[in-house]
Amino acid sequence: MGDGAVGPDPGEATDSLIGDAGERLAWIFGSSRSGSTWLLRMLSQLRSVVPIDDPHVGHHLGVWRPIPLAWATAEELPELKTLDDYKRDKRDYLFSDRYRDTWEPALRDLIRARFEAQAGEDAAARRIDDPIVVVKEPASHVSDRLLGLFPASKLIWLLRDGRDVVDSWLDAYREGTWATEGGAYPVSPEGRLAMIRWQASVWLKRTEVMQRTFAELDPSQRLLVRYEDLREHPGQALERICGLLGITEDRDRVYAVANANLYERVPVGERGEGREIRRATPGGWRESMTGEEIEAMHRILAPKLTELGYIVRPPAPAGDPRVSRTRAA
């Protein structure tokens, strides 16, 4: 291990904390605002888990194209892709398919070294000899690439109704919310529709990528957890995840962790509108969006929501009070 290094040396396969192919690595993927912070917090309270919260690897590897401004200025709703979709066949592009054999091992080593530096430090502090490193990565639109780098790693797909995800982001883009420190800003009343269309398109794209990634992975390496089930039966969901990850924690302890982290146990002053822990009840979008906004969101999300088993009612007819109601304060 070199001077100043923390944790195992990723260059030595026998010392690799997460394993050369990610044998001791698990990912929480899905869309942001799907309860992933809550899930990671519960898992981190189990004895063998070392968490890594939002490394944003995917935001660097999967730059959106076109830019979000297009959802407010384009003549027609554009198709959301990434820079890689347009550039991968270009010889000069850093991640060109032509030179994949050169950059892919280097990228794998970079990510592994970075994760192991942090995880090794935390495992040593908690005296965990053989940790499971669980990474909560919000940019799930590159989940296929990251699972390709670490083919033995495990996948937890946390799926939430896209309308609640959009609604949560709409709440975050207001004055003085938790998200402003990360670059969010107050959206004007005139900008709400564009924000809704953009966030709906992001949820759709990420969900489509997650479906493909999930389908291509061996069943022993993957688990789909719906937010709505996690909310209703957190102990059962956490127990299923422990089974996937090979965590042998006592069952009573698993359920105790789940119960200790219920939304209702969060102090009132630390949850609610404008806060990172906002609202745990599915379907809140009905109360915070106008009929026009809901219709715009459904134009993008309805087919995928229906495919995934979420109930989508047809748009309200003209004259229905829901169409013209004002937003909830």
3D structure, described in words:
The protein is α/β, with parallel strands linked by helices. It has one domain: 3-Layer(aba) Sandwich (Rossmann fold), CATH 3.40.50. Helices cover 44% and strands 9% of the residues. The strands form two sheets. Strands 2-5-1-6-7 form a five-stranded parallel sheet, sandwiched between helices. The chain has a two-stranded antiparallel ribbon with strand order 3-4. Helix 7 packs across helix 8, helix 8 packs parallel to helix 13 and helix 10 crosses helix 11. The relative contact order is 0.15.
Overview in brief:
The chain has 14 helices and seven strands. The chain is an alpha/beta fold. The N terminus and C terminus are likely disordered.
Rg is 21 Å
Characterize the biggest β-sheet: 5 strands, parallel
User: What is the chains' assembly state?
Assistant: single chain
Name the shape in a single word: globular
What's the number of domains?
A: 1
CATH class categorisation: Alpha Beta
Helix run count: 14
Annotated CATH homologous superfamily: P-loop containing nucleotide triphosphate hydrolases
> Gap between N and C termini, in Å?
57 Å
Tally of DSSP β-strands: 7
- List the helices and strands in order: EHEHEHEHHEHEHHEHHHHHH
**Beta-strand percent range:** 5-15%
